[in-house]
Amino acid sequence: LLFAFRKIFRNTKVLIDSAATVDDAKELVKKNQYALVIADLRLAEADHEGGLEVIRYAKETCPRSVTVLWTAFSGEEIEDKIVGVAPDHLLRKPVPSEKIRLIMEEIGLL
Predict the structure, then answer these.
(1) Is the pLDDT of residue 70 over 70?
(2) What percent of the chain has pLDDT over 90?
(3) Which residue has the higher pLDDT, 2 or 25?
(4) DSSP code string of the chain
(5) 26: Cβ–Cβ under 8 A, 6 or more apart, which residues?
(6) Reading across the β-sheet that carries 89-92, which strands appear in turn?
(7) pTM score, two decimals?
(8) CB atoms inside a 10 Å sphere around CB 13
(9) Which of 106, 103, 109, 94 shows the shortest CA–CA distance to 4?
(10) Prior bond to 94 cis, omega within 30?
């Protein structure tokens, strides 16, 4: 998916960073002021809900960042997990690149 995003936005001024772990993502958020932070609920780590921690950290560290959590989960299962985290957008997989493009347009990135 990251490869697809880089291809889609290659002729724009959008810069894309990626992280495979919660710690790496937090480090990026700490160092940069992102307009948009997208996190997958399941990162490569054992807890399988690292994306929630990334969203929570982004909201605390960069409150003006728009946050997106995407996941394959649906219904009450995910609603219970995001209580208290409140990402700005919740997208269910598969996520069409056009949906991300619309969010980016809404916040003025495109």
Answers:
(1) yes
(2) 35
(3) 25
(4) -HHHHHHHTTTSS------SSHHHHHHHHHH---SEEEEESS-SSTTS-HHHHHHHHHHHH-TTSEEEEEES--THHHHHHHTTT--SEEEESS--HHHHHHHHHHTT--
(5) 53, 54, 57
(6) 36-40, 66-71, 89-92
(7) 0.86
(8) 7
(9) 94
(10) yes
Tokens of 106: 């809404």
Q: What are phi and psi of 14, to 5 degrees?
A: -75, 125
35-66 burial, b if ≥16 CB within 10 A, otherwise e?
Answer: ebbbbbbbbeeeeebbbbbbbbbbbeebeebb
- As given in the structure block, the two tokens for residue 83 are 């209580």
Instruction: Say what the pLDDT of residue 37 is.
Output: 94
